[in-house]
Amino acid sequence: MQKSPDAFRTISEVAAELDVPQHVLRFWESKFNQIRPLKRGGGRRYYRPEDVDLLRGVRTLLYNDGYTIKGVQKVFREQGVKFVSETGKGTVDASLAELAREAVQRSEREEIASGSGGALDAAGKQTLEAILDELVTLKEEIDETLWETEGDEA
User: How remote is the C-alpha of 118 from its chain's centroid?
Assistant: First the structure.
């Protein structure tokens, strides 16, 4: 039995339709707050047709157009939900899609040039230094244990 185009879909139906695992859909929900399926008792997700179009747009941008997660987030911010949804429907003009891609790439280049792309603050550097110190200590302990073990075998 075929569902109506306006019917709600379960996560398994959407995953099958988009040819992605269910956990990918849940991951996308965590990365793109624009994706908000209805949730019923027990946490079951129900996707409206517009949710499916949006997911299809995200899939197209990631898998076909080569965007990263951050790139798609920028598309949402700069082009809007409607653009992503129309991308999913395949109704976005190719030249408009190219302009959006160029805008995102230009924005990413500007971030890198300004030094704001992924720079660590002082607390982040301290955390990484503490982790490095701990790793060095653990390596020394492992080396010492291996050295003792080799000495016992001789």
Answer: 16
